Protein 1
Amino acid sequence: MSVWAVLAAAGSGERLGADRPKAFARLGDEPLLAESLRRLDASDWVEFIVVAAPPGWEEPVILLAEELGCSKVSAAVVGGETRGESVARALAEVPEDAAVVLVHDAARPLLEDDVIERVLTALNEGWDGAVPGLPVADTVKRVEGDRVVETLRRDELRAVQTPQAFVASVLREAYSAGDVRAATDCSSLVEARGGRVKVVEGDPRLIKITDGADLERVAALL
Ligand code: C5P
C-alpha cells in the first residue's frame, strides 16, 4: 500500500500574532512545522510527503526538511487561500499510482504513530476514509444569530482531528467535485460524495495550535 502524506502548513496564523506564518512560529527551539514533518518522515507507514507551504515559504520548507534529514519530502507546493485549496494543490503532486493519501495539519504537531495506524487500519477494513475523533465535553447548540435553535445530542458528536486517511481515488474525486474552498476538513468532501468514513479513536495530545496559549500548552508536552 503506497501511502502519500499531505501536510497542510500554509495557514497565515494571524491569531498567533507572530511576524511569520504559523508553520514557522517557534515551538521550543524549532519552527512548528518541524515536529509534524519529522514525525511523518519517521513513520514506517508513510512513503512520501508533500507539503503545502505558505506563499513565498516553499524554499524554507525544503531547507528545513533537508536540515531535519526528512528524505521522504517529495515537494513543497504553494498553498492556497483556504485549507481546502492548499490540500488540493498538494494533492495535484501526488502521483496517480498512490493508493492512500493521509492528510495532516501542521497545526497539530504532536502526531503519534498509533493514530496513523488506526486510520490506515480502517482503510484495510474497506472504508473509503477514516478520521480520528474525540467525545465532546461541552453541550453543543446550533444557533441563528443569538437564538438557540437546536441542542445536539452530545453522545452522537465527535470532535474530529487529523491525520485523516483516504483511498486516493476517492479523495481525488471528492476534491474535483466538491466545494473545496468552504471545506474545513477533507472528510466532509468525501462524505458529501457518499463516501463511507469511519471515525476511530483520536488522541487528546493532537491539540490544534491556534493562539499563543496553545503553543505554550503543546511546548509543555514535547
Ligand atoms: O487555519 P487553521 O488552523 O484552521 O488551519 C488548519 C491547517 O490548515 C493548518 O495546519 C494550516 O497551516 C493549514 N492551512 C493551509 N492553507 C490555508 C489555511 C490553513 O494549509 N490557506
Note: Residues 8-11, 22-23, 52, 79-83, 86, 105-107, 210 surround cytidine-5'-monophosphate (CB under 6 Å).
Protein 2
Amino acid sequence: MVIACPHALGLAIPLVVAISTSMTAKRGILIRDRRAFESAKDVNAVVFDKTGTLTEGKFGVTSVVSYIPEEKLLMLTASVEKNSEHIIARAIVEYAASKGIRPTSLAEFKAIPGKGVYARVDGREVYVGGPALLEELNIEINDEEVLKLQSQGKTVVFSIVDGKLAGAIALSDIIRSESYEAVKKLREMGVRTYILTGDAEEVARWAAKELGVDEYFAQVLPHEKAEKVQLLKKQGFTVAMVGDGINDAPALVNADVGIAIGAGTDVAIESADIILVKNDPRDVPVVIELSRKTYSKMYQNLSWAGGYNIFAIPPAAGILATYGLVLSPAIGALFMSLSTVIVAINSQTLRKYMPKAEEITITTEEEKKVEEVPAHAHHHYNH
Ligand code: ADP
Ligand code: MG
C-alpha cells in the first residue's frame, strides 16, 4: 500500500497562486494575464511612456512665443485645439479662455496622431503640433528661446498658419513624485529603464536626466512605439511596457508584460496584461518583485513536496525492505501531512513581501485623479 500520496504536490502551486493573487489585488494591481505576470520575474528592461505615465499629464501654458499678434495666435490655435481631446489641447483652450479669447468656428478639422491637429479657421489653414509635425511640413525652428524652453523640459507646440510658423506655446507638465522612486528601485533591481515619448528630443533628454532613466526614445510616432519595444526584445531583453494612452496600446500588446496605469484610456487598459489601479509607477517594481517571489515560492514548494515523495514513496512501498528500511503506514501518513503543512506554511511566508500599508500612500490629488477617470472621455473644454 502506498500511503505517501503526493498531497503536498497538489497544493504547491494553487496555494501560492491564491495568495499572490489576493496580495496583488489588495495593492490595486490587477492581473489580467497570469502568464504575463509570470514573465514579469524575468523583466530586465522597463519602457515608460512619458506623458501621463511618468508625469502627471496635466499641462499648463507657461509662455507664448509669437511671430504674429499674440491674440490672433491664441485665437487661431485655440479654435483648432477646441476640437481635440489631447491634454495639450485642453490646456491651450483653457489658457486662451483665461485671456478672454474666444475660439471661433472652424472647418475640415483633422487630428494627426502623435503629431498634432489641423483645421481651417477664418479661411486660413492652421496646423498645431509638435516637432514631428514641423518635420512633416518641412519647417525648421531656430529660435533660441524655443530651444531653451525645451531643454528645461517644457513641451512646446507650434502653430503654423498658411504654411508659415506663427508662434510657439510652451507647456509644462509635472513629473509624478513617485516616478523618482520607481526608477531608482528598478535600477537597484538591475532593470534597465527607458522613456518612450512623442515629445521632442530635448524634453525627453531632460526627463531622463531628471529621473535617472538609462535611455530615451524621443519623437516616436504612435505606430513606432511598438517597434521600439520589438527592438529591445530582439536585443534579448524581457520587456515591460508601461503606458496610459491609446498610443501606447500596440506597444503594450507587443511587450512581454504590458502594464497600464489606471487613469489611462480604456484602449490602454484593454491592451494591458496588468493594470495599476492606484496609478502609481512604484507598483512597477512591486509587480516584478512579487512575480519573482511568487515563482520562487512555487519552486520551493515543488521541491519540498516532490522531494518528500521521492524519498518517502519507495520505503513506504517496501522497496528498501531488504535493507531493513520500511516506512510504516502510520509514519508515512505523518510525513505526508508534515510535507503538506510545510508547503502551506512556506506559501504563507509569501505575504511578508507585501509592502507595508503605510508605504502605499496616495495623496488626495491622486485619489481625485483616480475618481476623475471617466472625465478623460468627456469633452469639457470650457470652465
Ligand atoms: P506622448 O507620447 O508623450 O504621450 P502623444 O503621442 O500624444 O504624446 O503626442 C506626441 C506629440 O504630438 C506631443 O508632444 C505634441 O507635440 C504633439 N501633439 C499631439 N496632439 C496634439 C494636439 N492636439 N495639439 C498640439 N500638439 C499635439
Ligand atoms: Mg501618455
Note: The two ends are 79 Å apart (CA to CA).
Protein 3
Amino acid sequence: MKRTIFLAAVLLCNAAAAQTVISTKNTSLVIDAQEGQIPQILYYGTRLSSGDAAALRSAGFGASAAYPVHNDASTSLEALSVRMPDGNLSTDQRVKSVSTESWAGGKLVRVDCADANYPLAVSIFYKSYEAEDVISTWTEIRNGEKKKSVVLTRFDSGCLPIRQGDVWVTSFGGSWAGEVTVNCQPLKTGVRSVFNKDGVRNTQTSHAEVMISLDGKPQELSGRVIGAALCYSGNYELRFETGDTRYSSIHRFFAGIDPSNSNYTLARGETFTTPELAYSFSAEGMSGVSRNFHKWGRKYKLAHGGQVNDILLNSWEGVYFDINEAGMHQMMRDIADMGGELFVMDDGWFGDKYPRKNDETSLGDWVVDRNKLPNGVEDLVAEAAKDGIKFGIWIEPEMTNSRSELFEKHPDWVINAPGRNLVEGRGGTQLVLDLSNPAVQDFVFGVFDGIMTQWPGISYIKWDANMDIPSQGSQYLKNQEHLYIEYHRGLARVLDRIRSKYPDVAVQACASGGGRVNWGILPWFDEFWTSDNTDALQRVFIQWNTSYFFPAEAMAAHIGASPNHTTGREIPLKFRIDVAMSARLGLELQPSAMSAEEKALCKSAIADYKKVREIVQLGDLYRIVSPYDGKGLCTKIYTTGSKDRAVFFWYRTEYFHGEPVAASLFAGLDPERGYRVTELNRVGAALPFEGKVFSGRFLMEQGLDIPSGNNAPGPHRDFGSHVLYLTAE
Ligand code: GLA
C-alpha cells in the first residue's frame, strides 16, 4: 500500500517534469517519457544538476527514441521489429506510465508503453547501480493477444543515442589462443556491427562489450568514455548506426540477442525479457570505465565476487591426457611444496567402454577410468587433503562424442539439423547436447551433482565447452528458430539448480580458453580461463584487453612452460611469473620438469603474491603504458580503494638497443602520501630506489627510471620485468 502511494507521487512528479533523471555517483541518464509520446533518451554522461538537466534541450541536446521500433516514422535501424498475427509489420509504442522505485543499490525506472491498435506492450527498464556508476537497461515485450502469436524479428535489449563528434569505438575480436584483440576506429557514416553466432561460446571470436570514446582516440587515464556490455551467454549483435547527417546529429548504439535464424514466436499471453545491457560512463578514460565494471562485476555479478581466488596448478599443459595416479600425486605434492592452494585435474580422467585417451571419445561418459586411476578420484581428494591443498576436476558436461556410450544410448540428444549428416567438431567426433530438452538439462545437472555427491571433498570445477553449433536443429523443439535461445535458457536452468545446491564450490568458466567471458554467464562462475595461450608475451596483450571489462579476480593466468606449447617462444621464468601475478595466479606445466632453482623462484613468487593478491584481485586498475604503443613496454598498477597500498607491473615486451625508455609514471596514488617502494619476486641486484619513499605526487608526475637494457639487472633485455609493491607510510 505504502509503495503504491510512493509510486503515484513519482508518477505525478514525472508528468510535471516530463523528464526522468537517473543518476549515479558521477553520471546521469536523462529520459523523456511523456504519456502518449515515444519514449526518448536526452542525455547520458557526467552527473547533471537538476537545473542543467532541465535546460538540456535549450543547450541543443536533441532527444532520440529510447527503443526505436520498426515503422516509427523513421527509416533508420530499429531495436524492435515484429510480425503481428494479421501480418502487419509495424508497431507503435507510446508511453503509458513511468514509475520509479528504489532497490538496495540504486533506482529502478520502468517505462510502460503500449500499441493503441494491437495488444503488444513494451516495458523499458533502467536500473542504476549508484556506487559503481553503472546504469543498465532491458525490456519486457508482452503479447496480450487472446489467441494468436506475435513473431519478434528483432528484439534488442536497448538503444543509446551518442552525440556526434570525434567518437571512436573500441571493439574486441580474436580467435582460439588469440582472444580479445582490439579494433579501435572512429565512427563513420554507415553501420558497424559486432556479432557472434557461435551458439555456445560467445566470446572467442568477438566480445559483447564496447568502449565508446567521446573525445577522439581513446586514452586510458583521461577523456569521456562510455562502456557498454551486453550480459548474455548466447548469440548477439551490437550495432552502431550513423545515418543521414542532414536529419540526425547522433550515432545510435543497439545491442541485443542476434535474431538471425532466431525469430522468436511470442505465444499469446507470453512475455519475453531481453538480456541486461549495462552502461558505464567515466570522464577518467577507459581505465575509469574498467574500474566501474570491475567493481560492479565483483559486487553484483561474479559468484563469490570480492573473495580472492586460490593459487592453483592445472594438469593440462603438464600431462595433457596422460593422467595417472602416481603422476597426479606428484603434481599435487609439487604445488603444495611451492605454496599453492589447489590442484585441478584436467581432461583425460574418465571413460569406461571408451577411455578418454585423446579428444575423439568419451564426453558424456563421466565415470572414472580405472586403468588410469585404480583407486578412483576419492584417492586423489584424500591425497590432496594430506598435502594440505584443495582438489578440483575438469568436466565438459554440455558435450558428447559420437564415440561415447552416451551417444549410443541417446542419439536424439545432440544438436544437428534434421535429415543432415552429423556435423562433428573437436577430434572429428564432438557434438553439442541439446539443452533445450529437459531430459538433457537433468543429465547435465546430474553430471555436476554426481561428481559432488560421489566426491564431496571437491572444491573446484573447471566447466569447459569446446564446440559451437554448426548445424542448427533440435529433435526436441517444434520450432527450430527457438533453439539458440532455448539452449541458453536450458543452460541457465541447469546452472541455477547447481548454484542453489552447491553455492560454495568454485567453478571456472572455460570454453576452448576464453570463449565464455561475458557478464551474462559469469554470475554462475567464480572465474574464467582467459586463453589456452599461456605464452607470457601474448598474455600481456590478452590480459590487457580482457581487463577492459573483467577484473583480475576472475582472470586465470597460469605460468606455462618454455618453450611455450602454443607459440614455441622461449621466455624466462621471471617474466612468465610476473605476467601471471597480475591476474589470478596459477601454474600450468609439469613441475617435475622444473629445476630446483625454478621451483624456488615459483615458491617465493607465490609467497609474494599472497601478500598482494588482495590488491591485484580486488583493487582498482589503472592501465598506464599500453603494449600497443610501440614502445616495447607495458605498465599498469592496482591500488587499494583507500590508496594505502599498490602493486605496479612493468614489462619490457621488446628491447631495441640505444632507444631511450622514459621514466615510468604511476597512477591512482594519493599525491599527498609517501609510498615506500619494494620490489617483489626480485631476481638479481636491487633497483636503485629499493626501500626508498617517494610522494604519490612525485611518482605520478616524475616517475621512476627503471633500468632497461645495458644497465638492467639480470641477463635478459627482451622480457625484462619488475613488480613493485608500494606501501603508504
Ligand atoms: C580446452 C581448454 C583447455 C583444456 C582442454 C582439455 O581446450 O581450454 O584448458 O581444458 O580443453 O581438453
Note: The pocket of alpha-D-galactopyranose is lined by residues 316, 346-347, 359, 394, 464, 466, 510, 512-513, 529, 532 (CB under 6 Å).
Protein 4
Amino acid sequence: MDKHTKRSIYIETYGCQMNLADTEIVSGILDRQGYRICTDIQEADAVFLNTCAVRDNAEQRIYGRLANLKPLKNERSHMVIGILGCMAERLRKSLIEDQDMVDIVCGPDEYRNLPMLIDDAFGGEKGIRVQLSRVETYDDIVPLRTEGISAWVAVMRGCDKFCSFCVVPFTRGRERSRGIHNVVREIEELVSRGFREVTLLGQNVNSYRDGDHDFADLLRKVAAVDSSLRVRFTTSHPQDMSDKLIETVAACDNVCKYIHLPVQSGSDRILELMNRTYTADHYLRLVEKIRRAIPDVALSTDIIAGFPTETEEDHRMTVELMERVRFDGAFMFKYSPRENTRAYKMGDDVPDEVKGRRLQEIITVQRDVSYQINRQLIGSMQTILLEGPSKRSEKEWMGRTDTNKTVIISNDGYTAGEYVRVRIDSATSATLFGTVATISESLSAA
Ligand code: 5AD
Ligand code: SF4
C-alpha cells in the first residue's frame, strides 16, 4: 500500500472557470500519487485554496477564509494549509511570511510538484514553488472529475495580451496550447462517461494553436465527437475573433450559439489606455458580422467601471455601446489596481464612490436590456439541457438553453442530462420559466 493512502486532501476553488479546471488537474495529480480527494473538510489532512488575484476583493476573500480556518488548524496541528493559483503566483513568499498558518505556496505551472511539497509539509517544512513555464499544459494529466453533465476542459493556458489592467499574464504566464488530439481524446472519454456538455476554456481561446490547427479547427473536431454533445467555449478576445471561427460556430449545430466577448469599455481613449487593440467601432462591426452569420446568437461581455482617468463622457460612451449592442448578459466590475500592471502606474484616480455609481448605472442598463430580451422569448419553444434540481427548490428543475439562459421548470421526474423541449411562460432579467413539451436523449430530436 502506498504510504500516502490515508492522507486526505480538501480543495476549495475561487475565481474563474480556469481555476475549476485546474482544481480537477490538481486532484488528478494527487489521486495518481495515492492521495484521497475528500469533500468534507473535517476529514482533511491538507486544505488547499485555489485562488484568484484578478481583483483585490478576490484576495480579501481568501484572507477572510484563512482567518476562519485558523481554529481548525489550531485544533489539528498536523493539518497542512496550501495556497494554489494566481494569488500564490502573485504574492509568492510574502504569503508564507505574512500568514504563518500557510505551509505551501504553489503557482499554476508547478502543480506537478505538489506531492513533493505536501510530503515536505507533513515533515514540518514549508515550501514555495512559483516558477512559470512556457510549455506546461498538463496535457498528459487526467483531470479528476466528479460525474456530471457538464465539464470544463482547458485547451490553452496563459495570456499574451497584456491588457494594461490585468494581472493574468503575470500570474499565468505566456500562452501555450494543448495538442488537438489529446483534447479530442479527452472529450471522447467524457462522452463515454455520460457528459452532455463541454466548455473549452482558455484566457483567450481564439489564440489556440497546434501546428497548423487553429481554434476553429479544434472546435469543429470537438463538435464532431458526438452530435448530442453541446460544445461551448470561453473567453474570446475581439481582436482574434476570426471569420473562420464565426463560420464554424454558425455551421456546427451542436456548437452553442453563445459568445462571451469582453468589451471592457465603450470609449476609444480608454480602450487604447487598456491596450485592448480595437476601437468601439471595430467592436460594433464585429458584433454586426457575428449577428449576420449567426442570427439567434446570444452575446455577453465584461465591463470595467472607473478605469484610471475615466471621465463621465467615457462612461457615457460605455452605456451607449451597451444600449447599441444589447448584450444578453454582462459581468461588470469596479476597476481594481493590480501591482506590476501598466495601469497601476496610471494611478487610481476615479474615487470609489464614483466607480460605485457608474457600476450601478451600467448594472441597471444591463438588467433592463436582459429583461427586455428575455421577455421577447415568452411563448417561444427552447431546447434545454437539464442539469438538476434548481437552487431554490427540489420541486423545480433547471436547465440551460443553447444561448446559455437558465430555464426553470417544475420537476416531473426528469433525469439530469436529458434534453427537453420547453415553452417559455414567463421571464425575469436573469431567469426564464417554462413548461415541458417533449423529452429526448438527443439534441436533434428534442
Ligand atoms: N479590475 C477590475 N476588473 C478586472 N478584470 C481584469 N482585471 C481587472 C481589474 N484589475 C475583469 C475584466 C476581465 C474579467 C475576467 O475581469 O473585465 O475581462
Ligand atoms: Fe487579462 Fe486581457 Fe489576457 Fe483577458 S485578454 S486574461 S483581460 S490580459
Note: DSSP finds 13 helices and 21 strands in the chain.
